[in-house]
Structure formats: structure tokens, C-alpha cells
Specification:
The complex is a heterodimer of chains A (295) and B (167).
Chain A: E1 7-9, H1 14-23, E2 28-31, H2 37-42, E3 50-53, E4 63-65, E5 71-74, H3 79-84, H4 86-91, H5 93-100, H6 105-110, H7 113-119, H8 125-133, E6 136-141, E7 144-149, H9 150-153, E8 154-156, E9 159-160, E10 167-173, E11 180-185, E12 195-202, E13 213-219, E14 226-227, H10 229-236, H11 242-256, H12 267-289
Parallel strand pairs in A: 1-3, 2-3
Antiparallel strand pairs in A: 4-5, 5-10, 6-7, 6-10, 8-9, 11-12, 12-13, 13-14
Helix pairs in contact in A: 5-8, 10-11, 11-12
Chain B: E1 7-14, E2 17-24, H1 29-36, E3 55-58, E4 61-64, E5 77-79, H2 92-99, H3 109-122, H4 128-134, H5 145-159
Parallel strand pairs in B: 1-5
Antiparallel strand pairs in B: 1-2, 3-4, 3-5
Helix pairs in contact in B: 2-5
The chains are: A alpha+beta (295), B alpha+beta (167).
């Protein structure tokens, strides 16, 4: 057997899950889809005394459209469900697109939204998409439920603001505008990205001028989802040629990166990709704002 | 509250048979199938979710059996390559893999056939690109991908009632 011995519990409701979590003295891992955690268990990179399987808790895999045009999504929602869900495709197409880029069919059937966020791999697609969208995460623990903004949730390499006695149960996604783009470079379809960029831009209706809002987030280019604030300001700033602004924003995005330098790609190459992919994601977003489909 | 336990009893359906066992929590579904049930058609390659050799169907959907613990499968329905093989002879997908010589050492073949079963159930006429994408999570270490893609296209044609494509 590959993993070190552990004790396992499959609580039937959230209150029990929280109670077991508290009683396990912090030497515990939450099992959702297991597509990142179980490899780490099998490689003995983690050796928790207790594994709490959330899959027996009902009501954690809902996709609920909100009155504001947004969505609330249960943390146990599988990537395959996100990618195929009509409300997600309609209201948060960036999330559906990000989910489509994760792994392979067998992985998307099991892997979950909450698991991806709590695992916080800096090269993962969904954390970047939810930071760009300004999503709100609902954490549940012994003191009840509370919320945290997605950008505050990610604290570093595979490190989040989730305390050991709380469970991520829901993700609230605000309404998404029509100007969105998603671009990544992978060695093979389904791999973690060498680098990727998501873009959300807005422009007054009927205008072909400057954007009045821009949100650009890179993944695989730092220790967490990286917001390209200077690039956003260039896109929304006044003066100059709007076309040239995209190229300048791409350069600014590359400067904001502190990418890893490893066997998969050099830091310099990832920085180069950040610029190219920023331009690509922004152009997709502008094309969609014009009512067309990106090539 | 349910106390966490190191050994648990499970009851699940494997290839149509109801199975009840008490097992260690850390027993993977792959090891459970192979070691406890003797279903050695499910192959164990990387044991950390990369190679796809251990792919089975859980409640009808493909999953990597090395990334599931058998205790998670209490109440579930599991189908392995043995369950996809008719009592006599071979299924149309298996026949196509033989006809197209879509195997060299054969180690990846059970996982490939499980993934193909799922693909053709949802997409009866996949393009070569769609076949490659659907089987992207299954590695053939002999690199015999060209014939595997041909076999899937031939199996799709056979299942659609065509005479088979020679591509």
C-alpha cells in the first residue's frame, strides 16, 4: 500500500465534519476529489493521522444562480460539472473555460472546485479565474460560517488563509461581463500550465475606445495567482492609442511576474509567456466585447 | 459523530456482483480490485494519477482507481475491464484494438479501453482530435498512439453499424 496508515471518516453532515476536524488535533486532511491530495498521500509527501471525506455530506455540490446574475457554487462541485453546466457557461463562462483546461476526463469527474482552491497550486486555472472575478469564499467552522475574498485567500505557494478548523464550503461568483479571455501554454493538453493569463475587461456600450475596467491575473508565474495591476491601469488609462495600450500592458504584466525557474521552463521564458498570453487574453476579451467569437 | 477508523466495512457492486469486505482505510481501489478481488485486468502503473492504466468506471464515469480509496466506494458501482468483456469473445472495442494492432506490450490497454468505452458512449463519431483529447490521460509507454487512435475510430464505426474504417 502506498500511503502511510491513516484513520478515515465519512461524516454525513457538515456539523459532524467540523466536529471531527476539531477533535483531530490539526493532524488531519480534508478529502474532496482527491486528485491532488491522493498523489501526495501515495508519494508520502503528506501523512495525516486522519482523513475526513467530504463526499458523504449532502448539499455541497450545488450550482445555484443568484438574483444578482451571479452564482453560488458548492465546494464539492466537480470540474466536469463546472465545464458542462448551463448556468456556469451562461453566467461565468471564464470559470467553465478554466475547468475545461484541467487535467483529463477521469480527473475532471473527481476533482472539485473547493479542492483546487484549497490546494492552491500556483499554476492552477480556477484560483486565477476566481481572483479575477472577485469571488467570495465561504468557510465553515466551529464558530459558524464566514466569508473571505478570493485574493485574500491565497497566501503563497500551496498556502491559503484557510485555518485548520474550518472547511471551504461554497464559492460565490459575482456576475461576469461579456469581455473575457483565457490563454495558457501547456506542454501537453491537461498538464499544469507553464504560464497562463485570464482577462476581464469592460468598455462603455457602443464605444471602441478605452476600457473602463480591466482585471488581469496570471497563473504559473508566481507563488499564487498574480494580479497585473500596472497592466490593468494601462488598459484603463487615458491618452495614447488604445491598440498600443495592449502591447504596453503585456510588457507591464511580464514585469509583475516572479515566475519559478525549473525543469519545465526557465523564469525568463515564463515571463515572456506572461506578456504573450496577456496580449492574447485581452484580445479575446476585446473581440467578445465587440460581439464576435475569438479566433 | 462518526469516529475515524483505520479499518472499515464496505458494500459495493463490482461488475454486477455485490461485494462486502472489511478493509484498511488506506487500501486503494486499484489494490482492492487486484489483490482482494483478483481482478488483475486493472493495471497499476504510476500509482499517482498520471498514467491512466488503472482507469475504471465508477458509477458510470471514468476515474483513476489509484486515486480512490476503496472505503470511499461504499454504495458505489464499479466497472472494470473484466466487466466490459463479454462472457464469450471480445467486445467491439476490444476487437478493434486487436484488428488495428493498438497494443504493443498491452499494459495500457485496459485503461485505454475503459476510456474509449466512455468516449463512445457520449460521442459515437469522434474526430481524431477528439479521440486524442479523450485518451490524453492514458499514457502508452510503447508510444503506439497512432494505432490506438485508429482502433478507436474503427470501434466507433463498428458500434455505429458501419463496416469499419480502414484509415
Amino acid at each position: 500500500m502506498k500511503p502511510a496508515p491513516f484513520r478515515y471518516a465519512r461524516p454525513k453532515n457538515l456539523a459532524d465534519a467540523v466536529e471531527i476536524l476539531a477533535s483531530a488535533d490539526h493532524d488531519v486532511k480534508i478529502l474532496a476529489g482527491g486528485q491532488s491530495l491522493v498523489p501526495m498521500l501515495n508519494l508520502r509527501l503528506v501523512r495525516p493521522a486522519v482523513l475526513i471525506d467530504l463526499n458523504g455530506v449532502p448539499g455541497l455540490d450545488h450550482i445555484t444562480p443568484g438574483a444578482d446574475g451571479g452564482l453560488s457554487i458548492g465546494a464539492l462541485t466537480r470540474h466536469a460539472a463546472l465545464a458542462d453546466s448551463a448556468p456556469v457557461i451562461e453566467r461565468a463562462p471564464l470559470v467553465a473555460e478554466a475547468a475545461r483546461h484541467i487535467g483529463h476526463p477521469a480527473i475532471r469527474h473527481r476533482g472539485t472546485l473547493g479542492g483546487s482552491l484549497a490546494h492552491a497550486d500556483p499554476a492552477a486555472e480556477l484560483p486565477a479565474a476566481l481572483v479575477a472575478l472577485g469571488a467570495e469564499l465561504v468557510l465553515h467552522g466551529p464558530r459558524g460560517a464566514r466569508t473571505i475574498q478570493a485574493p485574500e485567500f491565497f497566501r503563497g505557494l500551496m498556502t491559503t488563509a484557510l485555518p485548520p478548523d474550518e472547511i471551504l464550503i461554497e464559492i460565490r461568483v459575482p456576475p461576469q461581463g461579456p469581455g473575457w479571455g483565457f490563454a495558457e501554454v501547456v506542454r501537453r493538453a491537461g498538464d499544469f500550465a507553464l504560464a497562463g493569463v485570464v482577462a476581464l475587461v469592460g468598455r462603455p456600450p457602443g464605444s471602441s475606445e478605452r476600457c473602463d475596467s480591466a482585471r488581469l491575473v496570471g497563473f504559473g508565474v508566481g507563488d499564487r495567482p498574480v494580479r497585473f495591476a500596472a497592466a490593468e491601469e494601462i488598459l484603463t488609462g487615458q491618452g495614447g492609442d488604445p491598440g498600443a495600450a495592449v502591447a504596453r500592458a503585456a510588457s507591464a504584466a511580464a514585469e509583475a511576474c516572479d515566475p519559478p525557474d525549473d525543469v519545465h521552463a526557465s523564469a525568463e521564458y515564463r515571463r515572456h509567456l506572461a506578456a504573450v498570453l496577456t496580449e492574447e487574453a485581452v484580445r479575446q476579451a476585446l473581440t467578445r466585447l465587440d460581439g464576435a467569437r475569438p479566433a | 459523530m462518526i469516529a475515524p477508523a483505520e479499518r472499515l466495512s464496505i458494500r459495493l457492486t463490482v461488475n454486477g456482483r455485490v461485494i462486502e469486505r472489511e478493509i484498511a482505510a488506506r487500501r486503494s481501489l486499484a489494490d482492492f480490485l487486484r489483490e482482494d478481488l483478483g481482478l488483475t485486468g486493472t493495471h497499476v502503473g504510476c500509482e499517482h494519477g498520471v498514467c491512466g492504466a488503472c482507469t475504471v468506471l465508477v458509477d458510470g464515469e471514468s476515474a483513476r482507481s489509484c486515486l480512490l480509496f476503496a472505503v470511499q466506494l461504499d454504495g458505489a458501482t464499479v466497472t472494470t475491464i473484466e466487466g466490459l468483456t463479454p462472457p464469450e469473445g471480445l467486445s467491439p472495442i476490444q476487437q478493434a484494438f486487436c484488428a488495428a494492432h493498438a497494443m504493443q506490450c498491452g499494459f495500457c490497454t485496459p485503461g485505454m479501453i475503459v476510456a474509449t468505452t466512455e468516449l463512445l458512449r457520449t460521442n459515437p463519431a469522434p474526430s481524431p482530435g477528439e479521440i486524442r483529447e479523450a485518451l490524453g490521460g492514458n499514457l502508452c509507454m510503447c508510444t503506439g498512439y497512432v494505432n490506438i487512435v485508429r482502433a478507436v475510430a474503427q470501434a466507433a464505426a463498428a458500434l455505429r453499424g458501419g463496416a469499419g474504417e480502414s484509415s
